[in-house]
Amino acid sequence: MLMPNLYGNIIGNIACGITGGPGMSSGMNLGDRHAVFETGTRNTGTSLKGQDVANPTAFIRAGIDMLRYLGCDKHADLISDALWKTIAVDLFHTKDIQGEKKASEIVDQTLRNITAIQRQQ
Amino acid sequence: MLSRALLTASRSSTLAVRGLAATAAPEPVIEGVHKLKVTTIPGDGVGPELIYVVQDIVKNTGIPIEFEELFLSEVHWSRSESLESAVEAIRRNNNVALKGAIQEATMLHTEGDIQGLNMRLRKKLDLFANVCHIKTIPGIKTRHGKDLDFVIIREQTEGEYSALEHELVPGVIECLKISTRPKIERIAKFAFDYATKHGRKKVTAVHKANIMKLGDGLFLRICNEVAKLYPRIEFESMIIDNTCMQLVSKPEQFDVMVMPNLYGNIIDNLAAGLVGGAGVVPAESVGSDYVIFEPGSRHSFQAAFGRQIANPTAMILCFANMLKHLHLDIYGDALTKSVLDVIKEGKVRTQDLGGYAKTMEFADAVITKFKI
Fold first, then answer.
1. Where does the Isopropylmalate dehydrogenase-like domain start and stop, copy by copy (chain B) (predicted)?
2. Contact present, B62 and B4 (Cβ < 8 Å)
3. DSSP classification of residue A87
4. Which residue in chain A has the smallest CA separation from B244?
5. Biggest CA-to-CA distance, chain B
6. Which of B208, B249, B262 is the closest to A17 by Cβ?
């Protein structure tokens, strides 16, 4: 979908809302020479500060996007697969997606999955 | 039947006086039943089919309403009534109208004017508030399965729809979004008064004041000022993008929402999608002197033209709301109930709700269920 600024803001948020909320999707800002990677909905999440409950998925995916942009496809795939396994297979979910895990637990599980995948390769 | 005749006969004395005062010649009274005249503006696309459904229901249920039809069109502008005669007709007929969607023409026949007929009609009648009723209808399955009941109040005479656009330099267009203190005060006060009158607890102002600091900043500031005059009603403000996200994940939190023009257009349609689509949401455009009842989602649905597949629920509910507005509550409530009963039963379902019924078949089902 292609659209001007304001509509993009609105539709982007609607789409994020349907697909799991602000903690899940990532977004990228692209120009001719630079690129900035961030969460999809640009929410600061001030109310969640310091409690270890914020869903790290959006930000990790932003990082994965950045690695792909830089051409590090192998590493991007590795982290992406590990994160996918954490959420979709191991079912480690934070509060915003009706789970009880802390943010640090998601990260730790993802690291464990990365090691496991590397061992298989 | 006898009770209905007695009721209408008792009304006829007061209504006859009103009729005599409003028109030059007295209305012909047939069998002691005085009918109220209303204007219909069928519009384009499926509008005429939907208005015909309403007329059919009135004919078969004895609701004391008479219709005066007005052809207003932008696409067929040479055959259209003038705006002045439309206003005159509405004024003549109890200051209310039932309206279908008028299709916006790509090229206007009037030189130098980019404002469409819909906007000009609303501005002429000063219909500053659009009130859209979002209510879950039992029998319509939704993605979220929640019980929703909220109202969207949209300022619809200024904002992004001011038709002030110009091309200073080829390829560079400037579009002016107008926000004025009097109109914002008016819509804010309308929202809080509406909330008070209908026993609502919370008003949410939707804006984008973080980006449009002056335009939406003014809107937010005035809403805050007006909120102080209504200490019993909770007030909160929400940025449009967050509002949209909340609407698709936790829509049950909303009660009354007030917002400028463009956001209202978007949120009206988003919310309509939440309860069953454009075919089921009724709304009204309200001014100080006039009210026009039209479906909440204003789509002419040209693709369905003449195919009898459109869902007339929204138009019928609009008409029921009009009956309540005209103090014909008994008929209005009965009509609303019969529509909701038909949908709840689930036997007669139009295409948008997953069924195969034709528009007129739905109308027949409503007529069958109608009972005072």
1. 37-366
2. yes
3. I
4. A14
5. 72
6. B249
Strand-pair category, B282-286 with B129-135: antiparallel
| Enclosing H/E stretch for B323 | helix B313-325
Q: ipTM beyond 0.90?
A: no
B245 touches chain A (CB under 8 A): yes
Provide the pairing of β-strand A26-30 with A35-39: antiparallel
CB B215, CB B182: distance < 8 Å: no
- The answer to whether the Cβ–Cβ distance between A6 and B246 falls below 8 Å is no
* Locus of tokens 């036997």: B347
The whole-angstrom separation of Cα B10 and Cα B356 is 42
Q: Which amino acid is at A106?
A: I
Contacts of B160 in chain A (CB under 8 A): none
Sign of CA dihedral B236, B241, B244, B250: negative
Rounded Cα gap, residues B276 and B142, in angstroms: 7
**How much is the pLDDT for B107?**
81
Put simply, the answer to whether A10 touches B266 (Cβ < 8 Å) is: yes
3-state secondary structure of B230: coil
Which of the residues in chain B have pLDDT under 70?
1-32
- Asked if B241 and A41 come within 8 Å (Cβ–Cβ), the reply is yes
- pLDDT tens for B206-228 read 999 999 999 999 999 999 999 99
Count of CA atoms in the C-beta half-sphere (13 A) of A104? 3
What are the chain B neighbours of A21 within 8 Å (beta carbons)? Answer: 245, 249
- 3-class DSSP state of A35: strand
